[in-house]
Amino acid sequence: MITSIIEQITLPLTAKPITAIWSCKRKRKPDDKLLKHRAHLCAHGGMQQWGDSYWETYSRVVNIPIIRLILYIAKIHNLDLKAIDFVLAFPQADLKENIWMVQLPIGIQANVKTETDLDRNYILKLEKSLYGLKHVSFNWYKKLKTALVDRNFKPSDTDPCLYIGNGMLVLTHIDDCIIVGPKMKEIGAFIQSICKKKKKFSS
Q: Dihedral of CA 136/139/141/147: which sign?
């Protein structure tokens, strides 16, 4: 998510570095038992400036009535369906903008002589869309849409988050998808094509 090589650089005059924070959370089961600990390295999106490090932020999500309609159709016609959740979805999207982060996040070590050298000479350049950036959901939406279109799926005129193609329907809602098809084998093959080929995802 961040550059693996730390080196001294000269920032552009217009660059305004942002800070980072660790977001730690305990995920629990429905019965309140501890499931796992989760930590995300997040960027301080509040320090970003529109027109400099981001532009578009709006990301589409499927409408609830469309979800209900597709589920009704699947039930009536005895179609198979599967829901998938992409793991760490936002950092999987590419980051084209130049965004800089001051200081190293807690827990990451740099091979520098003193803390003074670190504060004065070293920053991080983000290579992936960290949680917290204002436009990460938009970047993810573009990446997922491109992957579906490349696999011959077309967005519906009724709802752009409903994709139709290859005898299947795909509903997208941020990092979750519902896939409806005539056979689970075809659905499984589609998921494998996303996870193992170019522009692959983790799900």
A: negative
* Alpha-carbon gap, residue 133 to 145, rounded angstroms: 20
Who's near 95: CB < 8 A, 6+ residues apart? 126, 127, 128, 129, 133, 139
Under 8 Å CB-to-CB from 72, ≥6 apart: which residues? none
pLDDT tens for the chain, residues 1 to 203: 333 344 445 566 566 788 888 888 888 888 988 888 888 888 888 888 787 778 888 888 999 999 999 999 999 999 999 999 888 888 888 888 888 887 666 666 655 555 555 444 567 788 888 888 988 899 999 999 999 999 999 999 999 999 999 999 999 999 899 999 999 999 999 998 887 654 556 65
Q: What's the per-residue H, E or C state across 35-97?
A: EEEEEEEEECHHHCCECCCECCCCCCECCHHHHHHHHHHHHHCCCEEEEEECCCHHHHCECCC
Which residue has 């920032």 as its token pair?
A: 11
What's the pTM?
0.74
